[in-house]
Amino acid sequence: MVLIERTALAQEAHMMMVRKSKGLGERHQKILDFIQEYQRKYKHPPSIREIGENCDISSTSVVNYYLDQLEKYGHIERDRKISRGLRVTGANISVETLRIPILGPIAAGLPLPELQPGVNYLTDNEANAVDVARNLLPAREKGTDLYALEVKGDSMIDAMINDGDIVVMKRADEARNGEMVAVWLPRDNEATLKYFFKEKDRYRLQPANPTMKPIYVNKEEPLEIKGKVVMVIRKVEMVS
What we know:
Umud Fragment, subunit A, elongated, Arc Repressor Mutant, subunit A, two-stranded antiparallel ribbon
């Protein structure tokens, strides 16, 4: 599970597009764009020769000249002691984002939505979605079948999930012991976010709050797992 604050998320969203950096010439920008695209595709920086071949520069010394200038301007960092020792810095990093729909709150008396694999739940209402940088998701997460819910209550405070936070969920109808899941309990007309445990003849939904008791559900009673938590976006109160 990944935990981030909404302020960091907003900063990532501002970096989702590659814009021409102030003061850069066309050749500088072409090299910078290529480095970012190569890094995104292959997960490591390009070599000097690869930069030259893809940016129409025949001389490696000329490539080095442009890289030195990009480093001087603060757009890249270089480590000349190792092969491919360069990386794009800070505000020049292009971040791919996902728009994830917020389907509503997770709270007692409000049923969780029926979820189908491969369905896009985005609407035209921009307020009902959150932008998440793809590189903040777990490495194995491909970004499909994701949705978000707003947390109501404080049953998971020891897991650093508070009232008003947003949880990003992966659609699922099964869970392993210890996973944090969103569950609909028809018996109680209640949706809840808890740690899930299978016991001998019952299920235990464990809060992360020492003042609250677990919820027990007999195995013959209905219990609908709706998703697993993959990320928490914390609500940040702004102090004026």
